[in-house]
Amino acid sequence: MKDKVILAYSGGLDTTAIIPWLKENYDYDVVCVCIDVGQESELEGLEERAALSGASKLYIEDVVDEFVDEYVIPTVQANAVYENKYLLGTSFARPVIAKRLVEIARKEGAVAICHGATGKGNDQVRFELSIKALAPDIKIIAPWRCNETWKMQSREDEIQYCKEHGIDLPFSADNSYSRDRNLWHISHEGLELEDPANEPNFDHLLVLGVTPEKAPEEGEYVTLTFEKGVPTAVNGEKMKASDIIRTLNKLGGKHGIGIIDIVENRVVGMKSRGVYETPGGTILMEAHTQLEELILDRPTLSYKKLVSNEFANLVYEGKWFTPLREALQAFVEKTQERVTGEVKFKLYKGNIIKAGTTSPYSLYSESLASFTTGELYDHHDAEGFINLFGLSMKVRALKDMHLAD
Length: 405
Known about the structure:
The protein is of the alpha/beta class and 405 residues long. It has three domains: 4-164, Rossmann fold, CATH 3.40.50; 178-296 and 339-358, Argininosuccinate synthetase, chain A, domain 2, CATH 3.90.1260; 375-404, no CATH class. The chain is 41% helix and 19% strand. The chain is built from 14 helices and 14 strands. It has helices spanning 13-26, 46-52, 64-77, 93-108, 123-134, 155-164, 202-205, 241-254, 279-295, 298-316, 323-335, 366-369, 381-389, 391-404; strands at 4-8, 29-36, 57-62, 112-114, 139-141, 178-181, 186-189, 220-227, 230-234, 237-238, 259-265, 271-277, 341-348, 351-358. Strands 3-2-1-4-5 form a five-stranded parallel sheet, sandwiched between helices. α4 crosses α5 (123-134) and α10 packs antiparallel against α11 (323-335).
């Protein structure tokens, strides 16, 4: 009996070409595994395509709810955003995919896991760190780094290789954007985006929504309900978190929300440019942030910003399965115990405009914040506070004056 390899399979040209390549160079039985993280139409026709390409078996694994509940929501609770803009859509999908690949590898008794990530990108790092953390004994194969046996350098090469191995599928040789899609977002790279001097061709590029210019002239009010930092309802209608994201994706896409064009620093050392559509995620992140600013005290909120940045870096770098991520998440979960309430906002031409936030745990006191003097705050108390708060600054200044004399 031949050894088995688990192939992370999308059904695209790259992973289709990998099937005969694995059989030819390793003499493995190829078990294809497609992990459904909400990419929708990209899953159509995969079973027939995998069989025609020579795979011995295909798994299609729906992990959407696991992805949202165990990876997306903790990242939202952490307010983790990479380099101030990127909402980590691809980054936090990779560990849940790797986890399921390892589970199926164990079930099938496979000796190796193969992925189609290139040698220039972040995904090779994310997949392999996750696999090493969960199954250090399993071999990892990355064809794009196998220079002696992987000779294909273009889509035309891959199509020709497939045909030579009896695989004649309707792949197009036309170059297009390199995209990654899941329930949270869709990313776009390549073509005109490779030159930062070029404006994105949004009419050709966008999938989940429209530009703010093409959004409706009338705004739309939305109310999100949170319980302990977890979204539980949209406009009063309770639903699971994955359905909330689906609902917000439609609303956000309609109003031109969550389109960003960034140049980011990849883990492997280079800068890359991409356009990301994250309509629902952008709304969810903003609503959660608005609720927290009403509830968390100043030192907790300040320290949480440090944690948010480190959490984002860990997720981006593929270090999900690490003690540090677990420790940071434990801190975040403690901060979420009172993050309960409702956030109302208006969506209008790419903007998320505050329209009222309420919480039973709000630390905002109208009587304290008012310009009128109340029982809890005496203006005269501020003088002594300022004297003590600025004492070290005053002492230093006095010392400087003395030295100057």
